[in-house]
Design brief:
There is one protein chain. The chain has three helices and 13 strands. By secondary structure, the protein is α+β, with helices and mostly antiparallel strands. The protein folds into two domains: about 50 residues, no CATH class; about 210 residues, no CATH class. Strands 1, 4, 9, 10, 11, 12 and 13 form a seven-stranded antiparallel sheet that branches. Strands 3-2-5-8 form a four-stranded mixed sheet, with no helix packed on it. A hairpin with a 2-residue loop joins strand 10 and strand 11. Helix 1 packs antiparallel against helix 3. The two termini are about 15 Å apart.
Length: about 270
C-alpha cells in the first residue's frame, strides 16, 4: 500500500502540473502597431507633432539608429540624419510637423499605393541638418525595438520590398545577423514579405534604401532600381506568448512536491 500511495502522489503532482500547463493560453499573435495615426515617441528624439499625436508605445520602446555606415560599402555619398517613425493609414492624408519642414503623407504616393485602412509603421528619412527628405516620403530608416519581455516568436511583415537585400533584420538580442529580404527587382511590386524571429527580446530593423540619387557612380547603390529610393513600410508587427520565466517552471515543480508531501502527511496521520 505504501508503494501505491507514492505512485499516486507522483501521478497527482504530474497531473496538476499538466493541468496548469494546459490551462495556459495558446500562442495567439498580438499586434504591436498602435491603432492610431501619429508619430512614434522615440527614446532618443522628441516628436515634431502635437502631444496628442505623439504615440507612447506600450510593451516596447523604439530608438532611431544611424544607418549611414550600413550603406557606405554600397556607395552612399550623402550623409543622412536619424529617421522618424510614424503610424499611417494609406486611406488618409496627413501633414505632420512645422509648415517649413513638414511631413506630407498624400493619398497618392510616388511609389506603390496600397488601398488599406490598416495602420502601418512608416519611416521618414531626414538629412543631417534635420531637413525632411522628399516631403517625408523617402521611407528609409533603421530602428532598435526593445520589448518589455522575451517572446517566443516575433513576426514582421514588410510591404513593397523591391530592391534586393537592403531591408530586413540586422540584429537580434544584441547579436549581429544579416537577415535581408530579396526584392521583386521591379517597380510597383506591392507584395508583402514576412520574417519570423524566435525567442526575441530586441531586434534592429532596416527599412528601405536611399536610392541612386544618394549614391556614387558605379556603386551597388547606384545600380538599384530607383532614383528616389526603395521605400518600405512595416505592415505587420506581432508577437506570440512570452517566453516562460525560470520561476514558472520551478513553481510547477513546487506544486507537485507539495502534493506529494501532503499525501505523505495524510498517510502518517492515519498510521498514528
Amino acid at each position: 500500500m505504501q508503494k501505491f500511495n507514492l505512485v499516486a502522489a507522483t501521478i497527482l503532482g504530474t497531473s496538476l502540473s499538466m493541468g496548469l500547463a494546459a490551462a495556459m493560453p495558446a500562442a495567439h499573435a498580438m499586434s504591436l502597431i498602435p491603432q492610431q495615426e501619429g508619430e512614434i515617441g522615440l527614446t532618443n528624439m522628441n516628436c515634431i507633432v502635437a502631444a496628442k499625436d505623439c504615440i507612447q508605445t506600450t510593451g516596447y520602446k523604439v530608438k532611431s539608429l544611424d544607418f549611414n555606415q550600413d550603406f557606405k560599402d554600397d556607395g552612399l555619398k550623402t550623409e543622412f540624419g536619424l529617421s522618424r517613425l510614424f503610424v499611417d493609414k494609406n486611406a488618409t492624408q496627413n501633414n505632420w510637423g512645422p509648415t517649413n519642414n513638414q511631413v506630407k503623407f498624400t493619398l497618392k504616393d510616388e511609389g506603390t499605393n496600397p488601398i488599406s485602412d490598416q495602420y502601418w509603421f512608416r519611416p521618414v528619412a531626414y538629412d543631417t541638418k534635420g531637413k525632411v527628405i522628399e516631403n517625408g516620403r523617402l521611407e528609409v530608416g533603421k530602428f532598435l525595438f526593445t520589448l518589455d519581455k522575451a517572446y517566443e516568436e516575433v513576426s514582421l511583415d514588410f510591404f513593397d520590398v523591391e530592391d534586393n537585400f537592403f531591408s530586413g533584420i540586422l540584429e537580434v538580442n544584441g547579436q549581429s545577423i544579416s537577415n535581408l529580404l530579396a526584392g521583386a527587382g521591379k517597380k510597383d511590386d506591392g507584395s508583402t514579405k514576412t520574417l519570423k524571429l524566435k525567442n526575441v527580446s530586441s531586434f534592429v530593423l532596416q527599412l528601405g534604401n536611399p536610392g541612386t540619387n544618394f549614391a556614387k557612380d558605379g556603386t551597388r547603390l547606384k545600380k538599384t532600381t530607383f532614383t528616389t529610393g526603395d521605400g518600405v513600410r512595416l505592415s505587420g508587427l506581432a508577437v506570440t506568448k512570452a517566453v516562460p520565466e525560470p520561476t514558472t517552471t520551478l513553481g510547477l515543480g513546487a506544486i507537485a512536491a507539495v502534493g506529494l508531501l501532503g499525501l505523505r502527511r495524510k498517510k502518517a496521520a492515519r498510521v498514528g
